[in-house]
Structures are given as structure tokens and as C-alpha cells.
Amino acid sequence: MRWLVGWSSTTARTGPAMAPDAHDSGETVHPVGSQLLWGDPDPLWAVGDWRPDEVRVIKADDRTRIAVLGTCGASDEQLRVGLFAARGGALRHLTAWPGSYTAVVQVGRRVTIAGDLAGARPVFHTPWAGGTAYATAALPLADLIEAHLDIGHLAALLACPDVPEALHDSTPYLGVSRIPPGHALILRDGAREIAGYEPVASLAVAAPQMDGARAVDGVRDALVEAVRTRLAAPRHVPDIDPGPVPGMGPAERRGARMPVPGIGADLSGGPASGTLALLAAGLPGLPGTVLGHGTGAGERLLAVTFNDLTTRGSEAELQRAGAIAANPRLHHVVVAAGEEALPYADLDGPLTDEPGPSLVTAARHRARLSSGSADHFTGHGARQVLDAHPARLADLLMDRRRRHLVRPVAALAKAEGSVLVPARVYAAARRLARTPYRSGIEDAAVRLREGRFEEPAGAVGASLAALAWARPGPAARWLTGEALAEVSVRLEQAATRPGPGPGQHPGELRARAALARHAADLRVLEQAAEVRFQRLHAPFLDNQVVRACRALPEALRVQPGARADILRTVLEGAGVADLPDGWGEPTLASSTAAVGTGLRVAVEELVDLFAAPLLAQAGLVEGRVVQRALREAADGEQGGLDGLAELVSTELWLRRLLSRRGTCWTGTPARARAVPSGITPPGVLGQQRGALGSASSPSGV
User: Fold this and answer.
1) How does pLDDT run across 51-64, given as a tens digit for each residue?
2) Is-above-0.85 flag for pTM?
3) DSSP codes, 7-54
4) Distances (CA, A) of 302 to 200, 287, 295
5) Residue 487 forms beta bridges with which residues?
């Protein structure tokens, strides 16, 4: 893991790396494995194995400076201009450079930390010693304040993962908060403020829709610039043996595989990974391996395709990947894997900052990434930024654009084979368009309390279920009544807070929430499947790419096959026109089959995992209920897989968290670590959050 961490105290102090509460005792505090970017009174550290080119600090004077950590395409002069703009209060300038990075600006005693639009590079904060500590990871802050588990947050994460109103600004650690995507944290003498940096559309006049062709051109320019920024960065050659690493033995340090020096990309056969691979291979320069290393082909980009030998149905994807890899600037590597790389096959792994369903597939991804390059492109996020969330059908009705519903509704009717589909979808979209935000959140709270989780099956059923302001997640049906009651109270409290305001479109809000959830899980995956010396790049989650995709007209998004058509146009504009047949066809069936196969192979190990689960100790589930669900899913019960990955991954994360030793900080012999007392006994939800009171548990769960 790599992160930055710092704090802002209430009064100016002197002395390097001095804790605000440590002057009386003479105790100094600093993070383990860190480099100090600037010192007191408001110090900032970079922690972890940052590359030299990933950390830049530009100073105007001793009290006016900017630090940029990550991959940023701005020149030093552009960073200086952004620093002066931020000094005047213009925060958006800090987020408008190509690449994926975190920017921190210090002007006197004012410190500004800008998060990203997607949520892939979040910012966390916590009150500490009369001031505020901040970081780009939650665990270091939890260690700093000895935070206990926020059981209510874990309940909300399982019950409503795609509903920001249920999660609000909480994290798995009590007292540690997260700023929303698209916002910045501003600290003045220890006092904190959270400010949005994106312009807010006027409610008086509807924002004009950008022309479709211009919008797609904007996506092309943003993607090309995102890829070019990575190609322009210095190349890195991994060391053979990184030397002593805490918690890593010699055999792990000298693994069978190391990432190949240079730049590579996933090539799954889908449009997102194919687009990035072809763009990276087609731009001027040497995209691939460093000469003298690996294949010795400096002109060629290493394209990695994963071939799952345990499932069928991916033959067409492999053929498309092979056709794309026929490009002479691509060097194609196919990684064949059997049962050892199935989901749930290898449940050992490192502790991540937060839980996420990708923990159960981390070993599968690591098998692919270990054959990749030191800098590796992935297509993650393309679906979330380009596709239309089903709730956008209600947005079209609100904007009186009914004719644009014809093609997506007709496609659903064709998939279902029923003439009743158009009427059902139109009625659901009309109902959502007429439902106020507050009523929609309160309806979701009622569904949780009453244990109503039945949803129609099939593609049409999924679309109908998604036509709502908020809805329970697939794991909600396995939670206890007390946990569901806690989440329902959180939703009701959210309904009393100021909402998005009149005229806000539900589809746009739901799409942003889905993007934030995907970005958070990708962050978990990056930490869990990390290959040492490797950097994963997800250009579709860059700020400028997200902005360009948000400018796409809704009428263009909702059309069937829109993502493939947009990316085809992007490639044509970049000079790539020869694409294989079947480009853009759906590719989810094989991954779903792999999850089912992996569950059947590992069912006994999973059942043992829930013999005495920590989730039950926290009062969130009953172990025997989850065990029965696992066996039923392994036997092939329809819909049984949904939600189990969330339960298993959260249980794994809790076990790793409680079994860890040490802390993220040195110089604190009396300070232990996060969750020092372990899991609090059942029934603590109401005491911990003060939310339940005399609420009764719903029945039928």
C-alpha cells in the first residue's frame, strides 16, 4: 500500500515530525516507512514504495507549496500555476491535469487536499489532539486514534453498498470519516471544511446537452491524453530481490514471476481493455518492454489475456483478443489457469484498507497480473463511466425525451421475449420520475425493516429493480434483523438531511454512486492482488476522462451497445479502424460461471469459515444461516450466488484486521493499533451509534 498522511494542528509548533499532543512528553510521532515532504507545523509524509517520479513538491516560498503524488501529466510550471490558483481559492485547477494523482496544497496555515471524481483516490480525516489528521488511507488514521470498528458502517456496506445515503461519510473505523468524491478537504489551523470543486448546474435553466459527436471527441481526447501521460513517465526495471520487507519472507520476495519492465495492458477481448491496448500500442514512442529485458522487443506492448481452463463460454473473447493481438506492436501472452485461480480458491492475502467483494477474486487477478508489466493498463471503470444506469430512463422522462426510450425498451423486450416489457419498464421509469428523493430513501428504509428483498429475475427484472432512488444490496437478505434495523435508521436519518435539491435526476445520482462503489472495490483489489514493483493504471477513472464521459448525452448512453460504439469511434478517431467481429459483445457469462465453479470447489472451506464467524460476533449475521446459503448456492440454487462474495470478503477482512500485529506509526509505545479490543459483543449496534433505541427487529429475516 502507498498513501500520504499529515495533520493540521490548532497552533503553530516547531520541531520535525512532532505530534500535537507530544510536546509535554517529548514524544515524536511519524509513520512507518515514510519520507517527510514538509515538516511542522502541518507536516506531510509519503508512506510506502513510491517511485521518485511519483512524488513532486513545488515551492513558491517556505509557506506556499504543492505536493502531487501519483501519475500526473502536468509540468512543473503548470503545477506552479495551479498552486497560485489554489492560493486564490480555485480548487478545480488541482484536479484538471491528466493522470491519476492526489494534490496537497499548503498556503500559510491552510492545507487543501483534493480527492478525485470517481473515488479511486479517496481522502480520509479524523479529529486528533485538537486538530485534524488526514490521509489517503483509513487504516493509518484508525491506528493513530485507536479507533474501534464501526459495526453500523459494515452493516450498511452489506445491506446497501450502492446507496451513499446509508454509508454517508463513515468508514469501517469509528471516528474516521471519508470526503465524498468530487470534494476537497480544507484545513485551517486544525479546523476542517469540505468543499465541492465541480460546478453545480442551475435549477432555473436546464443545462444544454452537448452534441453527441463533440462529446465522443472529448472522450477520445481525454483517453488519449491519459494513455500518453503514462507512456511519457519514466520506465522502471523491477529489482530481483527487494531485500528485507516486513512480513515477507525470502521465497515471497523472490517470486516465480516478476513484472516485465515497461508498459503492458490487459487484453480480455472486451472493448475497454482492447481500446487501451490499441491506444497504448499506437501512440508514438516505445510503449512496450525496455530493450534488453523480457522479450527484448522495445517497440511492442505486452498484452496479457487470461484463459480460464475450468469454464466454457469465453472462446469468442479469446478469439477477439487474438485478433487484436495480431497488431505487430503487441506482444501477446496468454495466462492459462485452472482451479488454483478460481474465485474463493485462495483466501490468504494481505490486509486491505477496507473490505470489498474483490477479496474473493484477488488470487485470480494476481495470477494474471504477475505476467504483466511494471506499468499495466486495465479497463476497469469503463462500464460505470460510459454505460447508462437503468435509472437514467427516468431522467429522460423528466426531460421530456420519451422517444429516446424506444430502442433500450425494445432491446429489453427482445431479451425477455414478452410484449408486456415496454409497459412495465415505462411504468417503473414514470414512477421513479415522480417519486421525490426523500420518499425514495424512506421506501428503502421500510423495505429493510420489513425484510422485503424479492426482485424480478432476468435482465428486465434487474432493470426494473434498479429504477429506484435506493434499494437493498444482494447480501441484505442474510443480515440479522438488528443489523437491518440499524441500516434503516441510517437511511431515515439521511432522508432528514438536505438532499440533492429539486430537479436532481435520480439516474445521474445512481450512476455516480455505482461509479464510487466500483472505484472503492478496485482500490481494494489493487491492494489485495498487488504484485511488488507493479503499478495498475485505470485511465477510465481519471478525472478528465470521467468529466468527458459525463458530458455524453443521456440519449446516446441509453442506446443498446453504446459503450462499444463510443469506444469504436474513439479508436477510429485515433487511427485504429480494423476491429474484430463481435467487438463489444457482452462478456459477463463466463465470469459468473467461474464464480459458481469456485464456490462449489471451495464450499467446505467456506462453511468452516462461518462455523464461528466474526460477523456473527458483531451481530450482523447468523453463522448457520450463511452456512446453509453457501451449501444451497454450491448445489446450484437459482440466484444463490448473489451477496455471498460480500459476506465472505467482509469476514476475511475482519479476520485479517484482528490478526495483524504492529501499527502504522512509530514513536508511540503506549498506542497500540486500530480495533485494540477486538469485536464488540452482539447488541452493540444501538449503543455504538445511538440509533436503534427501542426499535424492534423485523421478522421474517
Assistant:
1) 999 999 999 888 89
2) yes
3) EE-SS---STTB-TT-TTTT-B-EETTEEEEE-TTS-EEEES---GGG
4) 42, 9, 9
5) none
